[in-house]
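User: what does the whole thing look like in 3D?
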Amino acid sequence: MGGGPVSNIPLCVPEIRGNEWLYIKDCLDTNWVSSVGEYVNRFESSFANYLGVRHAVACINGTAAIHISLLLLGVQSEDEVIIPALSFVAPANAVRYLGAWPVFIDVDPNSWQMDPNKLVEFLMNECDWVDGKLINRHTVRQIKAVLPVHILGHPVDMDPILEIAGKFDLRVIEDATESLGAFYKKRKVGTLGDIACFSFNGNKLITTGGGGMLVTNDESLAKRARYLITQAKDDQLEYIHNEVGYNYRLSNIQAAMGLAQMEKLDEYIEAKRKLALRWNEGLSSLPGVVCPISAKWAKSVFWLYTILINKDKYGIGSRELLKELNDSGIQARPFWHPLHLLKPFKNSYSYKIEIANRLYSEGLSLPSSVGLKQEEQDKVIEVICRLKKEE
Ligand SMILES: Cc1ncc(COP(=O)(O)O)c(C=O)c1O
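Assistant: Here's the predicted 3D structure for the full assembly of 391 residues, as structure tokens:
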């Protein structure tokens, strides 16, 4: 690793050092720059092969992939979809695009992912079957699907979620955006539900500038996804559209970048895991700092390495530490604001949320770029150790 003074350290920036130039130049040279082309097919195949799923459908971004997944599974206006309270906002927004409502479930205190026990409790105790429909007793809306989000690189405990979803006839969409390559009990995330979605925006494990992928083993769902993302075109020549469709296709240029990034994915994951080990070595014995766990059934990719700051033990709170880090040229950021507290979702039902609120007040994500240098990481560790107040 190169020496020299450490200046600003960003949170998470792309790593572009493979065949991106070659493949994108090929698009430009051959004039295949738009939403069809060889690279779209190659990126989709490479992604499907990597996960071991039958179908991968490239989309313009991850939010669009979630929107289409919800449509595919029949979510309609005034239905409900269960999602975790601690997540980036995209899945909740996608639910609202359809006029449906998220129901927020708390997260587990150890894994920080959707809490399967609270999900089971909610479904068993707060819902009723009415005329063959599963109805949330509090809102009198029909629940159609569960949408666990594998946040920060760590998988959700999926088996109990799949089991309860099976019992209650609910479809499962995984938002695996932040955890590409992570394993849940020897199975890759994104292969466990009916459909899974990924994003390739700039800070994700691999990036296409902006982009997304919808994956499924169900051929009819994949076929319909392609139809819906291509303006629902029924006749190529006469421009017949029998349904409202969407212009959600990924361009060949972006797919070319995605293919090049896929070639490096395993290397990038390895780099993130090494960074996590070094963070653990540097921070885990510091009183008041809680490092992320990898549950025994999980193999995390540590997309964004996130710690909790216990103010009583550490001496200052997460937001004061955040300011100090920023003042030292280190970009860090808190967890997302718990979704159930955001304005657009105030009419949504939320079930016993406590942990998400605490994690939000204590959590800080640290610089996690694949290319983060050792001396940069050392600087962050040094600042966090130095700011700990003596007891
Ligand atoms: C969990 C999660 N879901 C969905 C998205 C949305 O993806 P995009 O920005 O590609 O629409 C993101 C991040 O951007 C995310 O972190």
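In plain terms: The pocket of pyridoxal-5'-phosphate is lined by residues 61-63, 87-88, 90-91, 149, 175, 177-178, 199, 201, 212 (CB under 6 Å). The mean pLDDT is 96.
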